Amino acid sequence: MNTKPSLQESSDLVTNGEAQEIPPLRSYLWLTMFTCFCPAWPINIVALVFSVLAQKSYDEQDYDGSKRLGRKALHLGIVSFVIGLVIITAYIIVHFTTHMSKRKLLQFKDGNNNDKDAGRVNIHKPQPDAHQTRELHLIRLQTTKPHLRRSSG
User: Fold this and answer.
1) What is the number of other CB atoms lying within 10 angstroms of the CB of residue 52?
2) How many distinct structural domains can be found in the chain?
3) Element (H or E) spanning 18, and its range?
4) Membrane spanning segments where (predicted)?
């Protein structure tokens, strides 16, 4: 059977009479964009770059390169997400343990060891003791009633 030379050449997608399947795009762009909100920025930026490169390779019909870059983007995205969760969890634990220890310390200084009074402790403005209260009262009396001033001497 004689055919024209242009028909004898096979295209890139057809080899030995069978069509090569085009694999689906797996660049994991959605995952890498989501991990950009995690506090592991150097890793998730690299994952985003690999994801974009996988998309570009797929558009250039380099399916093996796209698959390889997509797999790297997936792995880096997962690592970035896990590191972000660890950092957020550590921050929350440190924040709440230091806040609770300050509250317990103030309760101990005030002599209140009851847990029911924990919500009533004023952290920002400590209450004056008896000596300071007496001095404040004398200062108020002296400013409002000048004839009650102490005589120096």
Assistant:
1) 15
2) 1
3) strand 18-19
4) 28-53, 73-94
